[in-house]
Here is the input.
Amino acid sequence: MNPQAPLAQAIADSAPLRSARFPVVRADAPLIVFDFDHTLYDGDSGSHLFAWLIQRSWWRLALALLIAPVAGPMVAWLKTRRVGISAFVWVGTIGMRRAGNLDAAIDRYVALHTEQIRARLLPIALDVLHHHREQGDQVVIATGAPPELARAILAFVAHEDVPVVGTLVGPRLGALGARRHCHSRMKMTMLREAGFTAPVEMAYSDSSADLPLLQAARKPVVVNPKAKRVEMFRRVLPPGTPILNWGCPGRGGDPVGTAAG
Here is the structure.
């Protein structure tokens, strides 16, 4: 049985029902931008996906272990993180010739891991997302992960049909690699190019890489940051910016309900 076809059909069948839950977005609706990893999802969704892709076969796992002494430390260091991650992405996608191949693999991954993924979605975060949609706000997800990953998780697991802007991939050395990484300043560029040109009313993110997005927002909200980054956020963002923890274990921020939440 191929779980990919039921996944695609379930998403298509439920789309009208999901849309009917919320008012139509007004032309002048406030633009609300959410990061995905460590904001709506507890963890790094892309790493979980590519670990599964690598573990599909013994030779991929062996190749990943072979490059790990070099690529692993590169992932740990911010300046070389993108190169290190790209090495593991390459291992996981050897044989894939186009982005559609990865999209199909993503749908299969989500269908096979629905319960595990559901356990990682943060209920408080989804409540906040729902609240914005109920108000008729224009909500978009901007993520460094492949857009189909966040889209499939939100549609099939959380029953949310929100637009997603994410990292674009293309052919590279017999596999796939990032053509445009939706990260840091490029995240704002890709949002604008996708048609989200209104001023950002609110932005939610955990990451210091998203400072261009948070600083562009009229009302930035830091959620689930690394504890060591909290003081930096307080220093560079407007006084009174909420720095919250939406139930993400091991992360910093004020527990919702006790401070600015």
